[in-house]
Amino acid sequence: xxxxxxxxxxxxxxxxxxxxxxxxxxxxxxxxxxxxxxxxxxxxxxxxxxxxxxxxxxxxxxxxxxxxxxxxxxxxxxxxxxxxxxxxxxxxxxxxxxxxxxxxxxxxxxxxxxxxxxxxxxxxxxxxxxxxxxxxxxxxxxxxxxxxxxxxxxxxxxxxxxxxxxxxxxxxxxxxxxxxxxxxxxxxxxxxxxxxxxxxxxxxxxxxxxxxxxxxxxxxxxxxxxxxxxxxxxxxxxxxxxxxxxxxxxxxxxxxxxxxxxxxxxxxxxxxxxxxxxxxxxxxxxxxxxxxxxxxxxxxxxxxxxxxxxxxxxxxxxxxxxxxxxxxxxxxxxxxxxxxxxxxxxxxxxxxxxxxxxxxxxxxxxxxxxxxxxxxxxxxxxxxxxxxxxxxxxxxxxxxxxxxxxxxxxxxxxxxxxxxxxxxxxxxxxxxxxxxxxxxxxxxxxxxxxxxxxxxxxxxxxxxxxxxxxxxxxxxxxxxxxxxxxxxxxxxxxxxxxxxxxxxxxxxxxxxxxxxxxxxxxxxxxxxxxxxxxxxxxxxxxxxxxxxxxxxxxxxxxxxxxxxxxxxxxxxxxxxxxxxxxxxxxxxxxxxxxxxxxxxxxxxxxxxxxxxxxxxxxxxxxxxxxxxxxxxx
Amino acid sequence: xxxxxxxxxxxxxxxxxxxxxxxxxxxxxxxxxxxxxxxxxxxxxxxxxxxxxxxxxxxxxxxxxxxxxxxxxxxxxxxxxxxxxxxxxxxxxxxxxxxxxxxxxxxxxxxxxxxxxxxxxxxxxxxxxxxxxxxxxxxxxxxxxxxxxxxxxxxxxxxxxxxxxxxxxxxxxxxxxxxxxxxxxxxxxxxxxxxxxxxxxxxxxxxxxxxxxxxxxxxxxxxxxxxxxxxxxxxxxxxxxxxxxxxxxxxxxxxxxxxxxxxxxxxxxxxxxxxxxxxxxxxxxxxxxxxxxxxxxxxxxxxxxxxxxxxxxxxxxxxxxxxxx
Lengths: 633, 325
What we know:
Helices cover about 30% and strands about 30% of the residues of chain A. Chain A is α/β, with parallel strands linked by helices and about 625 residues long. Chain B has nine helices and ten strands.
């Protein structure tokens, strides 16, 4: 047994309590493989004596096998966790490591500096209090340094430690250090980075990492570890306006109804008046139930359960907030979006948005510009590709409570979720709310849809025919409409090709334009349904997401998806307009089925096998379906 | 006995009381308070975001902490999910006893699943080796249990400090239809915004203790008086040394090799699993504070005693890809 205070003694107890009460500093390290970032973190862990002997033995063995430091210990191997990346000698994802000193404990997020850099950096920076940006002293401030700092600024990381590494390779030169510090200071001034500390280090030799450097006695600032230990952690979160997004309604019995959540900002006490948003219903906090019983107050970061004095409607996604300083409400925002998926962001495509505990349907209505993170220039963009950052307008399907991201991360940061794969495809930071939507009150029309449809002795609906070019959509629509006309029904056909001469004349065939094409046609279809008509839409509409958007624009039961299912070989053989021939010859691009994808419907109401059946047969099938639904025909 | 030995104490229901509030005493949260709040937040997201969640219960110290946190997260209601123990049938007798007590005293539903097929084939660590035993009785058994009950999210106590490949694990870790983990296809996790949306057949493993260290776990057990299996505390136990590891002779299924003679040594366990795969360490630490003091001067990491990590380089990463949690 090692020496030390007895585990039963007061001294030991006080020591353990102090360890447990230390604050956590979360920081992110940014830099590329060549800057020696993994080596620097490895050295912090190694010199803080946080590396166990068995881990060290493994690194020694690995150093001989994969190491890049000859016979020396390759400390980067302590950090590069996954087998694949150890073999390739690169880090490929964000890794989190905990270490601690007597004064503080740390969670270090390590994001790679090359491929996928924006996505991974944004992820690591989203929870960081501070960033350590690495620079190779021989190379100075590079475009990638600007890129890292810009992303940090966007994600709200205001404190930066600039670690100027590899000082051993520039003869520990003070002039080199001064030059880099001045250049970086000038760039940081253009951003929201307000607190910069520059430290000359050598991760390889350990100079200025955990202790002072004899080789650089001209530097009188703190070594890196000491700078991390003493960095100011005040965030203003505790003194901010009270916000608590509701996670869970706790209702074990008739006597107790509590709202569980983590306090995002500010303080709350029993008796405080609060506002439930976005419904803006007021009440008073009755009790604060903490993890160990009732509390007399709760502050930012605490997970609690509140009970209110009034029986008002509160559910998951609502924000319980200070009545004196309530959050803003809107359904449209200007925001920065970091795109994180290989499939690009398309304006008007429907996504799910999660902010706090609230989920909403969302569409980017406009991409104002793309931000070049290397030089802060703005460029025009129609889509956002993986790792792009765009300044956008976004519209939601409901009004939500929010704060600008720069004021509060928890109620101003959101993620975008793909509606089909359910993957997290983007992250956004709200700049401000746009008020256009809320200033327009819909004019109530005296004659409504049921009245118009009843006059025509029918119920309105949309038959949405989707399928490849040449599958037989237009022919089917014609045949169906003839039958409806003969039956005395009122109908209209919206044909994708015909509309391209007018309504959608400005659009091409890129994925972004296809989304907008479908959106416009769906909007017109909705107006015609409102007019009481049976609307036939004949448009390739290759993407599931947009067909779902069209479905959601209509009322329940109004949207009938008709999959005109014909194998591409048959369509290509028919080739009524000679388009496949041109596409194969490369004369036209973005042709569905050739060099642009078609996503077949998953649960269409009707499937028409037009390769096997004639046009009359399939038209009858559609009409029979309408007849079978008494509410339609 | 030391007053801090939690093992002998009753699990108490947390009665509402005006307890010391870190926010009132310090105006900020300390490390354990922050980690506790984060874990509670994660558990509540799971309860709200999934149709049928479950909490994996391994009977170990991390499970004891998870159960305590779950009760706090939903207090005064009971946690809205059951416990699931994937039983390899090779645990220490003390673990089975403790499991029964936890179920009785927490009142939470406890589902025990055994891979009956593997059991019928007589698969065990002595006869089939650690790799095959773990795969059949643990990895495959876990998949069976999740599929059988249709659980779409499984809370588990894994921590990022346990093993290198875990440092890049997400808090919400997506598993494909076959329960596979694809390290290249994990979702970015920003802020406290966890994406709980999955497709039919996919599932999520969720790790509320991701940012905890082994020392945090013991600190929390100490602070909260959480009962743990007595095997964590040093006591004289019969052991034999096999390939450098001290293995406890826990029941008659362990056949001694020629020349092997069980010795009584004062030992304890840093991690508990199947007894033939859990290495003991010689120690005098017989209370939670003594364990903490021992850890503060420890030179070996916790997983060193786990035989399954030594199957080859990157073995944990491979196990995870195959569905081990």
